[in-house]
Amino acid sequence: MMIRKNLIILGVLVGSLFLTNMSLGKKNTPRILSHLEAKAKLDSVEFSNYEQSANLVLQKYETRITGEMLAKSWRKTKLETNIEVPVHLALSQAFLESSFGESKLSKSKNNPYSIRSGNGYYKKFGTLQEGIDSYYSLISRKYLSCKPLEKLLVNFTNCSGYRYAGDSLYETRLKKTIRKFQMVGNI
Question: Can you give the pTM of this predicted structure?
């Protein structure tokens, strides 16, 4: 009986708040909409900047990877994890791992970042976009979630301490490639 009475009171309070907010909402709707529109415009500008920065580098190479593909994965990962994978990192790793997806392995498996499964085999993806999405998810969740990019570039290990690549000079090569692409793409 007491629970039912509390539920009725709760229902009356929620209904009252709803009616109050509806009457207030009419006044505030233009402000709220303009805030949402501004956020959407900012997201659109950020997406466009990311895509253009990637395309400035990619246009110099024969590749199936596009700036739009990277920007889509960047946006998706940012929404899911609130972590941004820098465009120069994604470009540099794709270049080092597979010459921007043009290696034989990468083409046959749609895996431009040479991502391995738990058993050591290279993962096969249905599409190139899925391979790129997988990289962005992996880097954001298992690498950038526990250390900033600056520390990652000194010791490219994930949150559990495992290295991304077996090459002992990987960080040196990665930093050199990042500098090269930052000069080209002004990123």
Answer: 0.78
